[in-house]
Amino acid sequence: MNQINPNKLLKSKWTAIKPINKEKHFMVNEVEFDEEGNVLACTIEAVMSKRSMPIQWQELKDMRIWQQGWK
To answer: Fewer CB near the last or first residue (10 Å), C or N of the chain?
Structure first.
């Protein structure tokens, strides 16, 4: 399981284990917090196409789907 600090999500880099639409490298480009500091929404952006998509930030913890950093 990837260890993730929600406060350091923004601009973090991720590699998809199985490419999504032939895209493998992503960066978190938007994180929305509530008043208590909990993550409400998270958006990742494909590096090559600049295509953005919403994601549940907890999915990034699953090492079967995501690897931290660009590999």
So the answer is: N
Separation of first and last alpha carbons in the chain: 17
56-65 contact pairs (CB < 8 A, 24+): 57/4, 57/6, 57/9, 57/28, 57/31, 60/2, 60/4, 60/9, 60/14, 61/1, 61/2, 61/3, 61/4, 62/1, 62/2, 63/1, 63/2, 63/17, 64/17, 65/16, 65/17, 65/18
What pLDDT tens digit does each residue of the chain (71 aa) get? 778 888 999 999 999 999 989 999 999 999 999 999 999 999 999 999 999 999 999 999 999 999 999 98
